[in-house]
Amino acid sequence: MTGPEYGNPRIPEGEIWLDISRLLYRVFRGKITGIDRVEIAYAEELLRAAPNQARFAAYDYWRGSFRAMPQARACALVRDIAPAWRAGDMAAVSRRSLRGLLCSIFTAPALPRYRGGARPTYINVSNHPLHLVDRVGQMTARTGALFIPLVHDLIPLELPEYVPPAWIEHHRSRLKTIAAHADGIISNSESTTQALRRHIPRLPVATIPLGAGTLMAPPARAPASPYFVMVGTIEPRKNHLLLLHIWRRLVREYSIGAPDLHIIGRRGWENEQVVDILERCSGIAGHVHEHGMVSDGELAGIVGGARALLMPSFAEGYGLPVVEALAMGVPVICSDIPAHREIGKGVPEFLDPLDGAAWMRMILEYANPASEIRVAQQTRLAGWRAPAWNEHMAAVLDFAARVEPRRPALQSIWSRTMLATSVSSTQAMKPASTVSAVASQRTG
Q1: Span 314-357, pLDDT tens digits
Q2: Which pTM does this prediction carry?
Q3: Residue 82: pLDDT above 60?
């Protein structure tokens, strides 16, 4: 099931609760990752698409319950955070306002109990705190909410060698929560959907590609010398080591004529070899530049001027940097994996992530100002269309409006229980003939 196949998109009738638990924490720390950027886009688009129904929720870890965040404060944060992050000025987001929103978790009311009418929809993008299986179950039972999470990937379960051991059980708990309580699932790619089918075969899944473009801007000026860029957390799965070994050889063979490599992304886990090379290898000094986490404006400026984005990952659920680079008209050289094939639609250069020689040849080719192969990709790019965030949200809301609830709302269960109790009590007080008559009425 995919979003674009719907001819007449619908919107759920009840309130739509977007969980911003993770976003509150990350913004307060001033550090935003790819998942946080997706959550920001969801918040913006939800307010545009369904302004009368959009609401925000967050999990209170101290009291162990989901809270309805103050609408005005949450909307103000969404309004302020997106432009501030794009401009690289997180100080523009009022610390006082943010502290007030965080503190309001302690005073905010619990998400309202379901009392009939249109059921609310609870959307979770970050999977934060879906590891709490029972708490999520209690919330959906109490509120009657339809629960629809976005699943980014199942890499911790399918390729556990690429993540810290603690993440494996954490992710398994999240999947257990989804399997037990979700009414439907949003998947970012067909690759992720296929993985979901192996673990949760019966739940409805909508494959809806993530949007691109709204968080990016064109570069300010053309670069003085050729360079390439890699975007992503420094972790084993991203395969930074391949590029660092290539650049060491490029600098050795071409000296000052070698192109530069810009690495964007925070340092993650189990990356000792990569960090050792970045910090101690004199052979790449001056040619490899580590930027850490940058704003969207800075990201756009670096990616926009690159000869190509390099993405040699061993596994991805989606590959948002590939989509955003292509959306900016920047060529891409990426690993030949299902997720990249799906989103690239034949435009990028696809290479085996273990074939270092092929990567080096392609990098040298793309560094050449007269490269016909690079021009050919730019020609293919003219026919490639980036998925838009407003289209993504329209498909998400349409799916939410059409999905069938897995269970009746709590009020209905409560009403039937009270009716059964009432009838039982009445029967106990009546003679046998009257009890038989009541029973025949109930079955008739």
Answers
A1: 999 999 999 999 999 999 999 999 999 999 999 999 999 999 99
A2: 0.84
A3: yes
Report residue 81 as tokens.
């955070």
CB–CB of 17/55 below 8 Å?
yes
The region that residue 118 occupies, defined by phi over 0 for left and psi between -120 and 50 for alpha, beta otherwise, is beta
CATH of 3-211+391-402, one of 3.30.70.600, 3.40.50.620, 3.40.50.2000, 3.65.10.10: 3.40.50.2000
> Contact at 8 Å (CB) between 321 and 309?
yes
Beta strands in 328-439 (DSSP E): 332-335, 349-351
- Report the sign of the C-alpha dihedral through residues 302, 307, 309, 312, in that order: negative
Question: Is the pLDDT confidence value at 98 over 80?
Answer: no
Mean pLDDT of 126-133: 92
Read off the tokens for 23: 């976003």
Distance CA 382, CA 421 (A): 68
Q: Which CATH class is domain 227-386?
A: alpha beta
User: Who's near 42: CB < 8 A, 6+ residues apart?
Assistant: 18, 123, 125, 393
Q: Considering only CA atoms, which of 19, 58, 61, 17 is closest in space to residue 38?
A: 19
Strand 308-311 relative to strand 16-19, pairing:
unpaired
